[in-house]
Amino acid sequence: MNICLNDKIFEMLSAIVTKDSIKAWIIGGYVRDHLLHRDHPEKDIDIVVVGNGIDFARKAAKAMGPGIKVSIFRNFGTAMFRYGDYDLEFVGARKESYNRESRKPVVTTGTLEDDQRRRDFTINALAVSLNRETFGELLDPFNGISDLNAKIIRTPLDPGITFSDDPLRMMRAIRFAVQLNFTIEETTFKSIASNAERIRIVSKERIIEELNKIIMCDNPSRGFILLEKSGLLKIIFPELDSLKGVEKKEGKAHKDNFIHSVRVLDNISSNTSNMWLRWAALLHDIAKPVTKKYDSESGWSFHGHEFLGGKMIPDIFRKLKLPLNEKMKYVKKLVDLHLRPIALSQEVVTDSAVRRLLFEAGDDIDDLMLLCEADITSRNEATRKKHLENFGLVRNKLREIEEKDAVRNFKPPVDGSEIIRTFMIKPGREVGIIKNAIRDAILDGIIPNEHEAARKLMIDKGQELGLTPQDESPEPNIQ
Ligand code: ATP
Ligand code: MG
Q1: pTM of the full predicted structure?
Q2: What is the CA radius of gyration of the chain?
Q3: What would the pLDDT profile of 434-447 be if each residue is shown by its tens digit?
Q4: What is the rounded average pLDDT of the residues 324-345?
């Protein structure tokens, strides 16, 4: 079989290898995606060469244009450079052997076939020749093409050895299955299940990279269900794993919160490509197992699971090696607030309740509404419709209040420094009390969102605390 590589970059590479009689092939992801007609967002091309990959990269960079900077990774024996839209990565054909403790192999030079053998899946072991006389020829010793056509993920060698050697491949198998909508071949999948424990030798950083890729798929629930079935989930993400299961008491059962959570993730994924909003959807009910209670009268309850869930977020992010920055705070906030719009869907709602939610959610209010809508997983059409209509009403109320009061990015008209100046006090407890009183009064609609009213409240509140204004000027001093 011949592959039509019509981009001029392949012509250039071919001319270079032919001139110096180098044996080189395009291998791996590029070939796979090209055959699947998959438009790859990152155009990375892996090139394997019999001999020294770094030397070849240098030679190719020199021939392909002046000023190309080659990055060399001597530890890995690889080199790469950017050419136009492409990232070209070069490696010398190699054999690998592993020991139990590490996923870093001992590497020796080898043939193309040795190199194909060390690849994770048959569909990732396809190589296309760059040499002039065989240009475009496909080398497929493990029937990768037939697996590609049958949409199957399978290891080229014994899956037990493949996964035990480098357990990251188990995560990759699931990620590719979801990303490409392939099935994992039965023995391969069984082998993941029996090697699941080996995932412990893989760094958290590599695991989260794959989890994030799964989360960014169109149908991420499939990935989490495969992770659960294989036994990987309870090792890499026990909090999510413990959401699964249904308990029944006196004939009353609660829903399976794992299945619910991944369905919410699917729902939101059709409306957003914001990875952190997807994470919030996955984690919104994370505290359900620890808040679960049963009462004969009222049945199952999960009181406070939203606050406790919010509290769990930093720890989960730390354990998974997700960033501990404003992204984490965003996810925490959405988990915290995820029940609030439901409370606003009751018919009689005070403006102040709506204002408070707008104030707390700020610019994330639209994302919060998306999360709440995704949280409706009832299969009953009438119920779904009713909930969606209720959220429609909430959206209207939010819009109305926002137009009227603009509290979304609300900043109280009297700030801490004005309080300090007025009473000539040091920053401390009193400043906080006065600030909160002003904020609450505005959000509760007791005073208007204006400087004069806020300043008056500041003076009253200060006097209650035994403070005397030293500076009666209503205008802030500009220094
Ligand atoms: P994508 O770039 O979409 O993640 P890819 O197949 O290109 O897919 P890369 O991680 O870029 O994946 O790796 C390039 C190639 O290197 C793969 O196609 C595969 O042949 C090989 N490979 C990568 N990681 C492994 C691994 N852990 N074990 C064996 N082979 C691997
Ligand atoms: Mg790649």
Answers
A1: 0.91
A2: 30
A3: 999 999 999 888 99
A4: 95
Distance 30 CA to ligand 1 centre (A): 10
Distance from residue 40's CA to the centre of ligand 2 (Å): 9
Which ligand 1 atom sits closest to the C-alpha of 103? 27
Q: Does ligand 1 lie within 6 Å of residue 168's CB atom?
A: yes
* Domain count along the chain: 3
Residue nearest to atom 6 of ligand 1 (CA): 29
| pLDDT at site 243 | 97
Of 79, 111, 144, which residue sits at a domain end? Answer: 144
Residue 432 lies inside a defined structural domain of this protein? yes
The verdict on the CB of residue 115 being under 6 Å from ligand 1 is no
- What average pLDDT score do residues 360-378 get? 94
Tokens of 377: 């997983």
Domain that holds residue 420: 416-464
Confirm whether 74 is domain-assigned. yes
162 Cα to the center of ligand 1, angstroms: 14
User: Could you give the CA distance from residue 442 to residue 459 in angstroms, rounded to a whole number?
Assistant: 15
pLDDT at 478 exceeding the cut of 80:
no
Q: Does the residue 335 lie in any domain? A: no
Atom of ligand 1 nearest to the CA of 175: 4
For residue 310, what are the CA distances in angstroms to 170, 208, 316, 332? Answer: 30, 20, 10, 5
**With contact defined as beta carbons under 8 Å apart, do 171 and 129 qualify?**
no
